[in-house]
Amino acid sequence: WSFVPIAALPTMMGMAHPTATTSATGCWIDTRVVDGPVSLGELDWPGDCGAEAVFVGRTRDEVHEQFGPLIRLEYEIFEPMALKLMRALADEAAARFGCRTVRIVHAKGVVPPGAASVGIQVATPHRGEAFAACRMLIDRIKHELPIWKREIWERGETFVEGCCAHHDTNT
Fold it and tell me: Are 43 and 99 a contacting pair, CB within 8 Å?
């Protein structure tokens, strides 16, 4: 799915994405890379779950000392490898934290300030496991996925070096 307006979310309830599958532990898993900003819809809610944790990583509205205001981010992804790793991380979260549902969506291409570049949703029976699973997933995504980020500023551009676009562990 591409960007979906908030008003359209109720019409998406219960709709599974065509790439979603079920893990060996019975967890419903949906991992995708989408063009442009990420939008998360409603989950097909597992009846035995009382907790949902959601993480949405958005582009900050920043000003670079030399290049001025941020215009947009541009993500490049080695998609086959990223999808394989996202699925492995979702499987791990399901096994470690008892997730019944895991959704991971990452943007490729242009993401303007305020828009989402990554979204994670997990459903578990209890809140502690949901928070822990969501935290583990974003921390690992930031350091393991083959994603590169170019920052386009008003008067220039910068490129985040290394395998991962998200190299700062404090954000």
Answer: no
pLDDT in tens, 31-56: 999 999 999 888 888 899 999 999 99
**Where do we find the tokens 């690992």?**
140
Q: 52 near 104, Cβ under 8 Å?
A: no
Distance, in Å, from the CA atom of 143 to the CA atom of 136, rounded to the nearest integer, reads 11
Q: How far apart are CA 140 and CA 137, in angstroms?
A: 5
Strand partners, 58: 116
Q: What is the CA radius of gyration of the chain?
A: 16
Between CA 6 and CA 13, with CA 12 as vertex, the angle to 5 degrees is: 110
Global pTM? Answer: 0.83
pLDDT, tens digit (0-9, with 9 covering 90-100), for 62-101: 999 999 999 999 999 999 999 999 999 999 999 999 999 9
